[in-house]
Amino acid sequence: MQDMKLDGNAIGGLLREIFAMEMTTAVGTCAHCGAVNEVGRVAVYIHAPGTVVRCPDCEQVLMRVVRGKGRYWVDLTGVRCLELAEPEV
Amino acid sequence: MIRWQFATLAEVVPETPRVSSLYLDVPDWQGHLAGQHVDVRLTADDGYQAERSYSIASAPEDRRLALTVERLEDGEVSPYLVGELRTGDRLELRGPIGGYFVWRGDEQRPLLLIGGGSGVVPLMSMLRHRAHVGNRAPARLLFSSRTLADVIYREELERLAASAHGLQVLHTLTREKPAGWTGYTRRVDEAMLQEVAWPRQDAPDVFVCGPTPFVEAVATLLVGMGHDARSIKTERFGATGG
Amino acid sequence: MGFVSRGFKGRRRDTASSSRVPPGQYVVTDFPVLSAGPTPRVNLDQWTFTIEGEIDEPRRWTWKEFQALPAETVTKDIHCVTKWSKLDTTWKGVSVDALMEGVETAADFTTVFSDGGYTTNLALDDITGGKAWVVYEFDGQPLHPEHGGPVRFLVPHLYFWKSAKWVRGIRLQKDEHPGFWESNGYHVRGDPWREQRYWGD
């Protein structure tokens, strides 16, 4: 049996609906274990009522995104800090 | 914000019995980097929609945007893309998407690409791009397929290996050993990676793409061999969805 | 009507609601697997089911004790908020009524909690009175881990996210504490017949 785990690449499009910048190269710090990972390498579960993003090191929830009724609900409490590169001009 | 736009199917090229490349004309395509993907959205006449991601197979320099799609029989989107969609049909997509699983072409470190099945698609974009820009850093592709008939881009890979400087292409077949076959015939294992991968001191850029179990297995082996987990870029695709 | 993908029909679906299919749902014959995290590895030797919170003395059953409780087999329709419904699913397990028998509590609300950290909130009234079960068999077979085995919650009159997989217990509470999905956009009760999918529905 396989877990239905994908990685952060799978939500590049979803995150670009919400954020102005490319997010798979953003670097997040896990609020639970302190691990620092690029969004591209985090664990992602999309076969669920929403999208659940988990720390690849401790498996705790980094981010939850629910889309419905023309709205988004975004929980970022599992991400202590997000570092983004300024877009190249 | 990222917008949906229309592409028109210009040409379909069968790659294997289950895999075809779709060549698309996309007006105002903003260009892409090797390794990026697009999201494709299908809409039924009652408004029902299905959305999937597909890696871009073409190089940034190529005239047309190419997606290479494996038809999953119990899938919902891939049987439409490979089977129903015809030349001249319009297709809604958005992209390019992603910046993590990307090879820009000016890197000087060795390039190690490991693909399972249609996981070769973004790696092919990198190899096509590498040939275009004339990058001379050594490159190796280790490509795992089920059978010889399932090897995507087989002839083009042979041509690239023969003409592009410093590229080696190594195949492994997991369900067949054809007569006269000189490649590997087993799942990717540590002994194979010891032969194919550069030692960690050479600090290769590593890209691994395939189904989730394939990627997990290869990444775990590489880390066990001492490669820095952060130098291994992975892209997984699920067994379900299609 | 905007763009239509010529010839695209999509997964077969019949969204006409009927006396058995709530609005906006379609009927499936397979059993889709939804997953918000890794499937926990459950060691039955260490497994327990607990009722805790607003209760004088927490109640706890080991796997063996739980198996010895009087079981019921029920056949129910289930409705997932991702829009599929599955009719006539058969489950075997213990009713919440049996687990709660004789419990005195001041609680009106509960949180059902699982291995892996998942939680879902339910009014006590929604899980008592023959409305909810803690089940370990589906279709006459031990419940597969991908469907929540060894043991999941079953509360079929609400959307299926309330039927927590890999369930480990019920916390009795005086106040309502929104669970994993209910705290992030999904409806606090989730009645499929009222299409209570999201906040504000």
Notes on the protein architecture:
- The complex is a heterotrimer of chains A (89), B (242) and C (201).
- Chain A has 89 residues and is mainly β.
- Chain A is 8% helix and 38% strand.
- Chain A has one domain.
- Chain A contains one helix and eight strands, in the order βαβββββββ.
- The mean pLDDT of chain A is 94.
- Chain B starts with a strand and ends in a 5-residue tail after the last strand.
- Chain B is of the alpha/beta class.
- The model of chain B has no long low-confidence stretch (mean pLDDT 95).
- Chain B is globular and about 55 Å long.
- Chain B has helices at 78-84, 120-133, 154-163, 190-196, 212-224; strands at 5-16, 19-25, 37-43, 49-55, 65-70, 90-97, 111-116, 139-145, 167-173, 205-211, 232-237.
- With 201 residues, chain C is mainly beta.
- Chain C has a domain at 43-74 and 89-194: Sulfite Oxidase, Chain A, domain 2 (Alpha-Beta Complex).
- In chain C, the strands form two sheets. In chain C, strands 1, 4, 5, 8, 9 and 10 form a six-stranded mixed sheet that branches. A five-stranded mixed sheet of chain C has the order 3-2-11-6-7.
- Chains in contact: A-B, A-C, B-C.
- The A-C interface holds A 1, 3-5, 43, 45, 47-50, 52, 54, 59-61, 64, 66, 68-69, 71-73, 75 and C 32-39, 81-82, 117, 144-146, 161, 181, 183-186, 197-201.
Which structural traits does this protein have?
heterotrimer; A: 89 residues; mainly beta; five-stranded antiparallel beta sheet; 1 helix; 8% helix; globular; B: 242 residues; alpha/beta; Elongation Factor Tu (Ef-tu), domain 3; Rossmann fold; six-stranded antiparallel beta sheet; 5 helices; 11 strands
Low-pLDDT sequence parts of chain C: none
Distance between the termini of chain B: 26 Å
The H-level CATH homologous superfamily of the largest domain in chain B, spelled out, is Nucleotide-binding domain of ferredoxin-NADP reductase (FNR) module
Largest sheet of chain C: 6 strands, mixed
